[in-house]
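Lab manual, section 2.4: Encoding a predicted structure.

Procedure: take the sequence of the chain (208 residues), apply the prediction step described in section 2.3, and record the output as structure tokens. A sample record is shown.
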Amino acid sequence: MIGTINLTTFIITGIGLNLYPGPDTMYIISRSLSQGKKVGIMSACGISSGGLCHTLLAGISLSSILIATPDIFQIIKIIGSIYLIYLGIRCLMNRKHKNDTYTDTYLAKQNNLQIYKQGLLTNLFNPKVALFFLSFLPQFVDPINNYGFLSFIFLGSIFLTTGTIWCLIIAIFSAQISIKIRQNNTCIFYFEKLTGLTYIIIGILIYL
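Recorded output:
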């Protein structure tokens, strides 16, 4: 279908990969726990949009240029790591007292666009994701009867659809179990610190 092979295997493998916890999962869980369902969903949408960008880049072979140029690859890794570590430090350095209201925290002051953008950049500046799409998708493209760019888009869309569904489930579930906790200002204060530490850990994982 649309120049692909072993499509059933691709779908099953893709779902398995989506279920495997990684930096994106950690990011969505931390934001959902600390800020609720709406923020978790916006973060998941940002992550998925980053995956779509990687799919498009793989389809037009820009990712292969990135992987073949170690210096550029390294620079993007550093940018992504610095960005996430910066966000983590901002959360940890929040000077608001733990008894302040939820709306006083650094994360709570972010609007939907900022939340979405952070999820997008978290995924987009992770060159390991680019490497994954470049190595995974071509295995299921028919080398003889492929549709070129469309084959990559088709496979990427399937992978991103199942991945987005899983991310939304994670966001909603994480937010649901933390409803009672988020009603306590002290818990919100420490949740933001935990989110900051999560950002820093993800930044380090991207660089390694």
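Check your result against the sample. The chain has a mean pLDDT of 79.
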